[in-house]
Amino acid sequence: MSHDSVSDSAISAHFSAAPARVFRAEKGTLYVLATPLGNLRDITLRALDILSTADLILVEDTRVSAKLLSHYGIKAPLRALHEHNERKSIAAIIALLQQNHSIALISDAGTPAVSDPGARLVAAVRAATLPIVPIPGACALIAAVSAAGLNAEHFYFAGFLPTATKARRAQLETLNALDAALIFYEAPHRIRRTLGELIQAFQTPREIIIARELTKTFETIERIPLADAADWLDAHPDTERGELVLIIDTSADATPRNTTTDAAASDATLKRWLPALLKELPPARAAKVAAQATGIPRSAIYERIEGEKDKVKRT
């Protein structure tokens, strides 16, 4: 028998002999607890231990969470904590923790405080020097990344884009300068608008991974050229139902970026063309055209234009 076989057998025997530990929610502690994205089996044993023994469970929507809790026979009291009441609920929740109540915080699906309510509460509980324990588990962001096969070496999670058009465009301009895969959450009723804006914002060859209904019956994870995204959506109208994760990745056959060289080349192009543009166009329009030509964020170019104006005034 090989050494490896002996080691494997020993490890197997160790785990089969070890009694399963049951965890209990500790008094005066806030548990930030991940719940399934859709498939109710995607919950950890420790999460079930904590939910079963907590004095109170904070939920985003009582109707949604009741399905999960009922499935596992969990009968702890529920209290709603969502984006509209989080701020005004914090003081009462901290008071309960100080009175030695154990509290579990969950969202409708996935990990709380990741583009979901909970971050303000967690910050306040930490400021009050009360215990906070994460119970990790499902997260749509990580699930999508794990199945995407990213070309980029790094990724940046942007969450939901702002609702205002001007703010959305400004954020996309900033993100376009990052040498990373970009990850967004999006609601189904905004997917068509968002795909159009992504196509417009990222002119260099990029690919998009569209992940929809993760872990559910109609799970879809599709990788296509970003330029084809609108046509793909037309052919798959069901995508306009169900929550989505969108990942803007580099193209598989794209030349790896040398950010130092790219930045120098873009800056040289800007210095050469910006004076000519400003002779023909207003500053805002010149900044937009220069941004499209160089890849430098429009806001940065506009700041440079304003800076040059200040220099002229001072002289």
Summary of the model, kept short:
The chain is of the alpha/beta class.
Q: Mind explaining what this structure looks like?
A:
With 315 residues, this protein is α/β, with parallel strands linked by helices. The chain folds into three domains: 21-138, Cobalt-precorrin-4 Transmethylase, domain 1 (3-Layer(aba) Sandwich); 141-250, Tetrapyrrole methylase, C-terminal domain (Methyltransferase, Cobalt-precorrin-4 Transmethylase, Domain 2, 2-Layer Sandwich), CATH 3.30.950.10; 259-314. The chain contains twelve helices and ten strands. The strands form two sheets. The chain has a five-stranded parallel beta sheet. A five-stranded mixed beta sheet has the order 6-7-10-8-9, covered by helices on one side. The longest helix is centred in the last third of the chain and has 22 residues, at 259-280. The model has no long low-confidence stretch (mean pLDDT 87).
**What is the rounded distance between the termini?**
86 Å
Q: Identify the CATH homologous superfamily of the largest domain.
A: Tetrapyrrole methylase, N-terminal domain
Q: Major sheet: size, sense and barrel closure? A: 5 strands, parallel
Q: What is the correct CATH architecture of the largest domain? A: 3-Layer(aba) Sandwich
Major sheet: order of its strands? 3-2-4-1-5
Give the overall form.
Answer: elongated
Secondary-structure class: alpha/beta
- CATH structural class of the largest domain: Alpha Beta
Report the average pLDDT across residues.
87
- Estimated helix fraction: 40-55%
Count of folded domains:
3
| Element-level helix/strand string | HEHEHEHEHEHEHEHEEHEHHH
